[in-house]
Amino acid sequence: MSQPIIDSRSISKNYGSFRALTDISLTIRKGEFIALVGPSGCGKTSFLKILAGFEQASSGELFIEDREMSDVPAAARPTRMVFQKLALFPHKTVEENISFPLRIAKVPAAERAERVRGMMDLMHLRHEYLTHYPAQLSGGEQQRVALARALVSRPGVLLLDEPMSALDAKLKKSLQAELKKLHRELGTSFVLVTHDLEEAMMLADRICVMVGGRIVQLGVPLDIYRRPANRFVAGFIGETNFLPVSVASTADGLSVRPLRGDQTAALLGADRVSPEAHGDAGLLLIRPEDGEILSGAPSPGMWTIAGTVDEKFTKGSSTQYRIRTEALDVPFVLESSGFDTAHIPVGAPVSVGFHPAKSYLLGDRP
Ligand SMILES: Nc1ncnc2c1ncn2[C@@H]1O[C@H](COP(=O)(O)OP(=O)(O)OP(=O)(O)O)[C@@H](O)[C@H]1O
């Protein structure tokens, strides 16, 4: 798991005068599952295409399996790519589609047949589909055939460009689960481009957040969620509340206090402070699940904010409240597990409690 399979060194990409990627340095380990996330146009697909050999970097170096890739064409790389829009051959059967890379590699017919059937089993595709054409299969089945075709030549790296975005929610969930299982069983490195942050958190060992053609954060999902690099990443990865605070240095660490309201100051440990936070002001990141609507006295160390329920949504497994407060210009978002058993009506006055020492301090710039 620790050996690198992909080593991208300061890769940049220009399309004419437009710079799509700047200084992308990323090492992906053997067997690792990496998700590339970021807003539309941030360069995720461009980077994937450079890894696959469908685009050339304008500068920088790319090593895959310790080999420099600038002169290695796509077909000769240990990478295979699965696209968002299916790229199956419509006039070839499922068997011909999956065996295509093996034909190119001149694998003997008997071995081809065996490996294709092995992939059908792995992808939970019935063998009777072998003689079917792609149009005769459902969207999810077609995407599984595309995965089978990409994996049949046993690539070291599977590149996935939003392979599930065209599928309906239920199919997507089942394919996500299959993908995770497949990754565990095969030991192949997966690089997944996705817009779906929940998908990235569910599947990836590490998430790489890109903005404007640059990597802004690379880390395990929990770190990206709990210790985002800046306000943009925090807001991009899940819903969040940003409470403006004043910051003072003390002998015991940083002390914070809300700009509005008269709470006692709270001390933050060094692991609760973003490296980009500095000066005497900041934003305290409070995730919706970290707040609670108090029914009694707050527990020691809690800060409380008074407000009124502006809206509430029942999501099935949880209930979300949006609470208007004096402390924030936008509603405080709070999520509690389960149904709204307390039956707190919209318009009701409430007291929101949370532990500042468990939150994370960001700089106050966007
Ligand atoms: N062949 C091309 N010629 C010119 N510009 C391009 C080309 N391919 C991509 N771009 C531009 O480069 C930028 C990055 O595109 P890319 O497709 O890599 O982004 P992305 O993060 O994958 O976006 P999305 O999430 O919308 O798919 C975009 O502004 C895009 O318009």
Q: How is this structure best summarized?
A:
This protein has 366 residues and is α+β, with helices and mostly antiparallel strands. Helices cover 23% and strands 34% of the residues.
Protein described:
- This protein has 366 residues and is of the alpha+beta class.
- It folds into two domains: 4-226, P-loop containing nucleotide triphosphate hydrolases (Rossmann fold, 3-Layer(aba) Sandwich), CATH 3.40.50; 239-362, OB fold (Dihydrolipoamide Acetyltransferase, E2P) (Beta Barrel), CATH 2.40.50.
- It is built from eight helices and 20 strands.
- The chain has helices at residues 44-52, 94-104, 109-122, 139-151, 169-186, 197-203, 221-226, 231-236, and strands spanning 4-15, 18-29, 33-37, 59-64, 67-68, 79-82, 157-161, 189-193, 206-211, 214-219, 241-250, 253-258, 266-268, 281-286, 292-293, 303-314, 318-325, 332-337, 349-354, 360-362.
- The strands form four sheets. The protein has a six-stranded mixed β-sheet, with helices on both faces. A five-stranded antiparallel β-sheet has the order 13-12-11-14-20, with no helix packed on it. It has a five-stranded antiparallel β-sheet with strand order 15-19-16-17-18, with no helix packed on it.
- The chain is elongated.
- The model has no long low-confidence stretch (mean pLDDT 90).
- Adenosine-5'-triphosphate binds next to β2 and α1.
- Residues 15, 18, 20, 38, 40-46 line the site of adenosine-5'-triphosphate.
